[in-house]
């Protein structure tokens, strides 16, 4: 039970710690007060409790597809908020590089804790089902608690390593890695949503496009990490592949187009006028 | 005048978006309702799956109904099938799998991965020796289910 608890905890908690690392790294240039992190954790804990309290009821809604419907909507919402966050970060990073005294955007103060809260709520509720379901079994308390402590230690370590890696690459190689990673994380969340919609037959099912399990096994440690980081799927369907490519390339293409049209320059000027 | 023109343009775009969304929704609806799906039943009891192997036809989407007869939750998980679903104590749930090519697709209970294990075997229709069972007869022969190795329930609806 100990090993199983560690694995389950890692599976559900890793996305939270990876997201926290991505958000902190991407917000490094902004002078946001760190309170957003605590707000996110607190709201996430509330959301997690709310979902897990009603999870039995939700799961029976819509002929047993209630959880998939709710979770896929939440995944979609996470992607949308990440998109807004991504756009604002690009504008604000440009503004900050031109004007060091510029104030951080209040939008980022809302989007950052909201994304974190949604991811905690979603993944935490999943783990709570296991935790509460097996808590009352004889001899389960010790391995459950020990498993959580071990899982927490591993997740924190991975989060810290990822943060320093992103900071290093942002400073020395490409300043956009944490931003792109955040967008990929959002696309990964949307990939989870499409999986859930396939499961309840709301998306058409097709044969798998390929099977890359022989390169990176989805059930391996690296597989778990990559799934949490950018939604790695060893056996995607055509719909999933198409959705993933679209939700990654569309925002990047839009930004490149707007950059060409000098939209960002005019936007930054507006921000500066407002500040004055 | 300019305002009116802008408003009509917005309305046109809005109507266009609604039309496109409607068409997409219809396509998805037709996809999901296009074929009647065969139903297969799985049970979880004492942290074990019954039957341990479910045989389904090749290239067909099927409905898998899973009953959890235990007093603890279980999560049906399969990396091969890309499926993951929590089944609460003494409840049932439904998932759709396929269409799949011929092969063996492992699944397990994520909360008890050592004991709760099974596989979906995908075979061409002509290779499946399938005495179609209805729900009533399935209940009567529930003790034999694990020996049979497959169970298919086709509803007339």
Present the secondary structure layout.
The complex is a heterodimer of chains A (276) and B (157).
Chain A: H1 2-26, H2 35-64, H3 66-98, H4 106-135, H5 141-172, H6 177-199, H7 221-230, H8 238-260, H9 263-275
Helix pairs in contact in A: 1-4, 1-5, 1-6, 1-7, 2-3, 2-4, 3-4, 3-6, 3-9, 6-7, 6-8
Chain B: H1 2-33, E1 39-45, E2 48-50, E3 53-57, E4 62-68, E5 74-78, E6 83-87, E7 92-97, E8 103-109, E9 117-123, H2 135-140, H3 145-148, E10 152-153
Q: What descriptive keywords fit this protein?
A:
heterodimer; A: 276 residues; mainly alpha; globular; B: 157 residues; alpha+beta; 3 helices; 27% helix; 34% strand
What do you see in this structure?
The complex is a heterodimer of chains A (276) and B (157). Chain A has helices at 2-26, 35-64, 66-98, 106-135, 141-172, 177-199, 221-230, 238-260, 263-275. With 276 residues, chain A is mainly α. Chain B is built from three helices and ten strands; from the N terminus they run αβββββββββααβ. Chain B has helices at residues 2-33, 135-140, 145-148; strands spanning 39-45, 48-50, 53-57, 62-68, 74-78, 83-87, 92-97, 103-109, 117-123, 152-153. Chain B is globular and about 55 Å long. Chain B starts with a helix and ends with a strand. Chain A binds chain B through residues 4, 8, 55-56, 59-60, 63-65, 67-68, 126, 129-130, 133-134, 137, 195, 198-208, 213, 217-219, 233-235, and chain B through 28, 31-32, 37, 59, 61, 63, 72-73, 75, 79-80, 82-86, 88-89, 91-101, 110-113.
Helix proportion of residues of chain B, in percent? 25-40%
Cα-atom Rg of chain A, whole angstroms?
20 Å
- Give the biggest beta sheet of chain B: 5 strands, mixed
Coarse shape of chain A: globular
Calculate Rg of chain B over CA atoms.
22 Å
In short:
The complex is a heterodimer of chains A (276) and B (157). Chain A has 276 residues and is mostly helical.
